[in-house]
Specification:
By secondary structure, the protein is mostly helical. Among the domains are: 103 residues, Serine Threonine Protein Phosphatase 5, Tetratricopeptide repeat; 113 residues, Ankyrin repeat-containing domain (Serine Threonine Protein Phosphatase 5, Tetratricopeptide repeat). 50% of the residues lie in helices and 1% in strands. The chain has 20 helices and 2 strands.
Length: 405
């Protein structure tokens, strides 16, 4: 009987002890879980005092991953480092306020957060700061040892993004963080592009100082001279032409830079670039592969404003371009100049080769027929009659006769 009572006593005591231990452990877990939740909420809301209070109670929170469910991905729960959350929570679609609090980033780093951590999707605090243009967070991260990881896609693209934006300070920070000035873009949209090939005009000199080479060429054939063809600084264009003379007539298949640098400059109506390229031996006989345009067709076909292409036409005529060349529609540059209603250009083209006024396109039209369509058709609502009269006067001057088909 005594033995049985003792057995029951110890069994009850054991059950009570287990219950106490379970309550203690469970309570501790719940306490830590609630502390983590408060810590995460403080980070997402940009609540610096709340983050300070949480770290004062448990400094290890800065290094432990936190669960988070983005608003737009309610079906997905991911785990992020507190530092990654602090950087990403600056966006309004995540945080309650969206206010940037770089002090939280600095506080987490002082408590041992890893500046080179990354999310499950491959973002690092540094690459995300570049993507969202958070320069203040970048400065803190680089100062605390953040480095560019060449094995991570978003890190590889960081310098390219900064060069496209033309952000001088961001480029310097990324170079300090180990970004490769010769890094090649592997994305399917722009394969083979390097920082120099995408750099904004105002940072080209800076990229060159950091060691970029003008010999870079993308898989589509894009070179620094194709980019220079849209620049406005004549001295920079001249410098790039001197550094990369072999690319003066190189061909590119990129949609935005189709053809040679001269063709790009003509599409952009960039007078300084056109003259410098011609001076450095640009080939004026090249053709647009899509429409069959000659360089003179381009000068007449893409005017950006009244008289914008006048200098380009003069420079090309001086370089010996064929004024009577025809495109895939059988049209000469004069056909296009008449259609674009540029009296000065019409006169210049006729003086360069008077016989072009009699040339017919594949539809059998001479330039005068195109003009008469503007005069007689509904286009007169959109076209200045004075300009049309001037063009007609030019075409009929000095014995040049218009006519039918």
């Amino acid at each position: 009987m005594i033995v049985r009572n003792m057995f029951d006593y110890f069994r009850c005591a054991g059950l009570v002890l287990c219950l106490v231990l379970m309550l203690g452990v469970g309570g501790g877990c719940a306490t830590r879980r609630h502390a983590g939740t408060r810590f995460r909420t403080a980070i997402l809301r940009g609540n610096l005092p709340g983050v300070q209070a949480a770290l004062a109670g448990d400094p290890t929170l800065a290094t432990r991953p936190l669960s988070f469910r983005p608003k737009r991905e309610l079906w997905k729960v991911d785990r992020y480092s507190p530092l990654m959350l602090a950087v990403m929570a600056r966006e309004n679609d995540w945080a309650g306020s969206g206010a940037p609090v770089p002090e939280i980033v600095a506080l987490l780093l002082r408590h041992g957060a890893n500046p080179n951590c990354h999310s499950t999707t491959g973002w690092t605090p540094l690459s995300w700061s570049v993507y969202k243009n958070h320069l203040d967070a970048m400065r803190i991260l680089v100062r605390c040892g953040a480095k560019i990881d060449p094995t991570i896609h978003f890190d590889r693209e960081a310098l390219l993004i900064a060069c496209v934006r033309g952000d001088v300070a961001m480029i310097d920070l990324l170079i300090r963080a180990g970004a490769d000035i010769h890094g090649v873009d592997q994305s399917p949209l722009s394969p083979g592009n390097t920082p120099l090939l995408v750099a904004h005009e105002r940072v080209v000199e800076q990229v060159l100082i950091h060691g970029a080479t003008c010999k870079d060429r993308s898989e589509s054939g894009l070179t620094v001279l194709h980019r220079a063809a849209s620049f406005t600084d004549p001295q920079l264009i001249k410098k790039l032409l001197t550094l990369a003379p072999d690319y003066t007539n190189s061909n590119c298949t990129d949609v935005a830079y189709l053809g040679t640098p001269l063709m790009v400059a003509l599409r952009r109506q960039n007078g300084p670039a056109i003259r410098l390229l011609l001076k450095h031996g640009a080939d004026v006989t090249v053709r647009d592969p899509v429409h069959g345009f000659s360089t003179l067709h381009m000068a007449c076909h893409w005017p950006t404003g009244k008289g914008a292409s006048f200098d380009a036409i003069g420079a090309l005529v001086e370089a010996g371009v064929d004024v009577a060349a025809v495109d895939n529609q059988g049209r000469t540059p004069l056909h296009w100049a008449v259609g674009r209603r540029r009296p000065e250009e019409v006169k210049q083209l006729i003086l360069a080769n008077p016989s072009t006024v009699h040339l017919k396109d594949h539809a059998g039209d001479i330039p005068m027929i195109i003009l008469e369509r503007y005069l007689d058709g509904e286009y007169h609502r959109f076209v200045s009659k004075e300009e049309l009269a001037r063009i007609k006067g030019v075409l009929l001057a000095d014995g040049i006769m218009g006519g039918g088909r």
